[in-house]
Amino acid sequence: MSVLQPVRGTHDLLPEEARRHRLVEEIAFDVAKRYGFGEIVTPIFEFTDVFSRNLGETTDVVSKEMYTFTDRSGESLTLRPEGTAGVARAFISGGLSQHLPLKLFYRGPMFRYERPQKGRLRQFHQLGVELLGVEGPQADVEVIALAAHILQALGLKDQVRLELNSLGDAPSRAAYRDALVAYLSGHKDKLSKDSLERMERNPLRVLDSKDDSDKAVVADAPLMVDYLNDESRRFFDTVQEGLAAAGVPVFVNARLVRGLDYYCHTAFEFTTTALGAQGTVLAGGRYDGLIGQMGGPVTPGIGWAAGIERLSMLYAGEAVVRRPMVVIPMGVSDSAVVVTQRLRQAGFTVELGYSGNMKKRLARANKLNACAALILGEEEWARQALVLRDLDTGEQEEVPLAVLEDRLARFR
RNA sequence: GCGGGUGUAGCUCAGUUGGUUAGAGCGCCAGGUUGUGGUCUUGGAUGUCGUGAGUUCGAAUCUCAUCACUCGCCCCA
């Protein structure tokens, strides 16, 4: 359109959409609070190392999607592409290891230089949680149950399904990786070009390829579950049992993998078919090694993040907007502000009509979905009264100023 | 980063094989009611036809480039 476009992949949240976003956030946060989560707010940029050293050098996010820049002091900074690394960094910086276990909720913009598409933006918004300091699988169960609960609160229960897998601990994962690469190497001729590259960079990614030929190869590939050592196996079983006990339906997907390197053991995704190619609505996993790797005290963690734009597109509810009442001065405009402020101070939502004749102002009141109009006419004003018109019934009456708040009580 | 589609008024969209002043509905503004809205009715305004080049006597229409959105891949929330 015009020259004044927003930057590619960014967009404005106009009031209506902003309301939906806030509503989604509030519903999520409200549920999270019941699980004991408190909000943490971290900066939207960090030293580049925070991300580049911890998400995995070869991941797409780090290798080609970060908004990295040098500030005026020559420091390399990066707009956060995800939330977990920043929270982990804040955990270390703030010495929060003394307050374990820690339940944190966050929300805000994230940035990735990707090709924009529906449900995929360069500046997008996530909300997420992190539970730090609990080794046992009950943490996984609680965090996933919370996710399911939030999706239910948003009315999305029937539109999403939970897929679950275990990536095992580091030794299990390494063993599996070797076995998988060995297997794939024997079928190089049938793999897509993308998958041949993935074999080098991130072999597990071949497992969720959408290419038909790849799928045929993958169908007979070794499975992660068969390479889990006893401990990892037990962990995975316990998580599944816990979710069953919590009443959260699960589809075990042995080919589910994660894009970032810090994950281990539990990996999960809530997916939908309603958003085209961007089917993941909420996803996360366990990252026991991350904080230690960053230089902090070795601390287990598990968390997830959800895309607010994606949730908002699926969410059918509407934000409830409080209906205002409208003050319409007719010839006593100086006094209108007095009445208006008095009512606002008393807790009412009040709009003051700015201009036009009575007809126009009432029409505007109507468009604002106002519940009532307070008409200040000279005649009534002389009697220290005004006209109250109920805009739903059309009935109107004269109300003395002295009892105004009482008479308006039903519109509160 | 790769391949396909789309781009006309604030919004949703027509626009015939290139042809003269580019349309509709909704919305907006104004009147019918100079202190009374929602319905009805009458009238009005609005477009660099995404942008830039090219072909042509003539381009919203054809060609190329470019930007944005969109679908799939990729990636992921």
CATH architecture term of the largest domain: 2-Layer Sandwich
Q: End-to-end span in angstroms? A: 44 Å
Order of neighbouring strands in the sheet with most strands: 1-5-6-11-10-9-7-8
| Approximate shape | elongated
CATH topology call of the largest domain: BirA Bifunctional Protein, domain 2
Number of domains: 2
What's the CATH class label of the largest domain?
A: Alpha Beta
Note the total helix count.
15
CATH superfamily of the largest domain: Bira Bifunctional Protein, Domain 2
Percent of residues in helices comes to 25-40%
User: Sheet bearing the most strands, described?
Assistant: 8 strands, mixed
Radius of gyration: 28 Å
Low-confidence stretches: none
Overall strand count? 16
What does this structure look like?
- This protein is an alpha+beta fold and 412 residues long.
- It has 2 domains: 241 residues, BirA Bifunctional Protein, domain 2, CATH 3.30.930; 87 residues, 3-Layer(aba) Sandwich (Rossmann fold).
- The protein is 36% helix and 22% strand.
- The chain contains 15 helices and 16 strands.
- It has an 8-stranded mixed beta sheet with strand order 1-5-6-11-10-9-7-8.
- α1 crosses α11.
- The two termini are 44 Å apart.
- The relative contact order is 0.12.
- The model has no long low-confidence stretch (mean pLDDT 92).
